[in-house]
Amino acid sequence: MATTPGTIGPAEALKLDELVTPTEHGIASRVLARTGGGNLTLFAFDAGQGLTEHTSPFDALVLVLSGELTLTIGGPAVRATPGTIVRMPAQIPHGVEAVAPARMLLVMLKGTS
Prior knowledge:
single chain; mainly beta; Jelly Rolls
C-alpha cells in the first residue's frame, strides 16, 4: 500500500509526541493521513500562537492531546484541554489560540456538513 509523502505508514505504532517537532514562538504541523474522505493533521502550538479566524467547506474535529486551547467557533469561545474533542461545523468561522503550549489532532471530514 502506497503512502502519501509525509504521512504515516500502515501497521506501525507511533508516538504522537515524536511525529511533529514544536517550534519556539511558532506552529508546527504534519499531515498524518490523507484520503478522499478527509485528512488527519497533528499540530504543535507554542503559547500565544494559533490559527486566525477562517472557514472551511468541511466539518472538522479538534482532539486536544496536551496543553490548553481556546477555540472561537461562530463567536463563542470554547476552552479545550487534554482529552476533549470539539466539532467545528463547515462554513462557520473559527480560530484557534494556544493558551499554553499545546498539541492537537485535527480531523477534516470531507463531504459532511
